[in-house]
Design goal:
Helix content of chain A: over 70%
Shape of chain B: globular
Order of helices and strands of chain A: HHHHH
Distance between the termini of chain B: 45 Å
Number of strands of chain A: 0
Number of strands of chain B: 0
Radius of gyration of chain A: 20 Å
Oligomer: heterodimer
Helix content of chain B: over 70%
Structural class of chain B: mainly alpha
Shape of chain A: flat
Distance between the termini of chain A: 40 Å
Number of helices of chain B: 12
Number of domains of chain A: 2
Chain lengths: 109, 242
Amino acid sequence: MIDPGNFWLLTILLAIGTFLIRFSFLGFLGGRELPGWLLLHLRYVGISVFPALVTPMLLWPAATGGQTDWIRVAAGAIAFAAGMRISVIGAILAGMGAFYGLRLLAALL
Amino acid sequence: MTQSAAGGQPGRAFWRGYRDCAPFILIVVPFSMLFGVVARDAGLDLVQTMTMAVLVIAGASQFTAVALLQEQAPVFVALAAALVVNLRMAMYSAALVPHLGHAPLGMRALMAYLMVDQAFAVAVRTYEDEPAMTRPEKVAYYMGCMMLICPMWYGFTLVGALAGNLIPASLELDFAAPVCFIALSAPLLRSAAHVVAAGVSVAAAILFHGLPWNLGLFAAALTAMVAGAQTELWQKRRRAAA
């Protein structure tokens, strides 16, 4: 059972903290010019964050208690291939499709 | 040209952002429903579940916070772990400065509140592809992206919270999260330097996996950013020397 006092304290502080993280540079720097070296690094934010988010999700998923599940890894690889070859929506459909397809196949075999 | 033409462009940019983010409905729907289900399972009531979803709108940190509360972790431990998950958004915030920093303070605050992964990635990619976009168009495009994702986030959290046990855990809706970030990554691999950054990001995520407090993600992302930037500089130097 989650104590309501703890829940509300956490939720309010998490909301404020998360907002301040999001507001940080955009809010406080505003329209100021950023130095060239920083702009150079900022061009790589997305491609540096997303693979680092995905990797542990694929290799050690919380849903399996951290056990590597090869169906998840394979479906992730298929999603990536579709993303490179087709499109964003192709990646999503191929990834989810492969995941459920392989699960079904594994259940039938 | 005329005032009306200038006013029409941001309107068009808004709807373009809306459309460009549309594929991520397929991700946001299962993922937010899952949060609703998990939160109710953990014993939160409907008001608690929805308040958290609306005030925080950051899926991964919400899951972290609820899981730790459920394990009876101290509030400040749960808070720290959930906030570290969101630290990546400080990088998003910085990366948006050159494009959106000119907007008025109130607008910047609204844009900060609405900052979610999918919309950030889609918006920055479009800004880089189309340097001719005007500032009002960039703001409108960003709002178009967020105005699609955020209401879906609230709405389907509610559906999940109401449906609860009708959605069996065997559906494994959590797999929508890695698929989402893979779909976001693939179009960003636009140069050799981006490929290097992605490779370093994966390797560093494995290497730093053991770091406490979820700090591995932040450390891996910083390492990959430096790797990408250094590769770009090295390529420029080589081209200049040739």
